[in-house]
Design brief:
Helix content: over 70%
Number of helices: 6
Strand content: 5-15%
Radius of gyration: 57 Å
Distance between the termini: 177 Å
Order of helices and strands: EEHHHHHH
Number of strands: 2
Strand order of the largest sheet: 1-2
Length: 199
């Protein structure tokens, strides 16, 4: 039989008569030491993994920060580009408007509009403001008619009413508008009759 020091288990019998092996104190101490060593090894592994995880988290946070800075720079560059494009587009539209308005101004001035009314009419035409355009057109037409009447009155020869003689030539009479002829007929019916060939 083995001595007491070398025994690792003891045999006991329970109430039912079955034999059970119970570990000795020495065996329990050895198992305890092994478990303690395993727990310490696991704790070291956990500490290593935690350190690696912390390092990865720090690197990820740094990467995110740098990415956000880069993204902000990209967004800023994109915003600056959009602002430049908007300014350029507004400048081009302004030039197109000025060019079109100037072309209209030249056409209206050729029709006898004053420079001021030609500018207003051209802007209303370009902007599509129909009511303003027709109001300006009426005003311009009135001004044109009045200017032509003044011009005619300045160049009109004197009418010698009641004397039977006239200083208006046939050519001048033919160039008169209806208003001027009506005035001549009212003021000098004899001269008018003579010029139309009735006398």
């Amino acid at each position: 039989m083995a001595s007491e020091e070398t025994k690792t288990t003891e045999t006991t019998t329970d109430n039912a008569g079955q034999k059970n092996e119970v570990p000795t104190e020495e065996k329990l101490a050895t198992q305890n030491a092994e478990l303690t060593k395993q727990v310490q090894d696991l704790m070291k592994q956990v500490a290593t993994l935690k350190s690696a995880s912390d390092k990865n988290s720090a690197e990820a946070a740094e990467f995110k920060r740098k990415y956000r800075e880069t993204l902000s720079a990209q967004e800023k560059a994109s915003q600056d580009k959009a602002e430049r494009e908007a300014e350029h587009e507004a400048y081009v539209k302004k030039l197109e408007r000025e060019n079109s308005v100037n072309a209209y101004v030249r056409k209206y001035m050729a029709q006898g509009y004053s420079e001021e009314l030609a500018q207003k009419a051209a802007e209303a035409m370009y902007d599509g403001d129909v009511d303003a355009f027709f109001g300006i057109q009426s005003e311009a037409t009135k001004e044109i008619v009045e200017a032509k009447e003044r011009e005619w009155l300045k160049s009109r020869p004197d009418v010698n009413a009641g004397t039977g003689t006239t200083s208006i030539t046939k050519e001048q009479f033919e160039n008169m508008n209806m208003m001027a002829r009506s005035e001549l007929r009212r003021n000098s019916p004899d001269v008018y009759e003579q010029l139309i060939g009735r006398k």
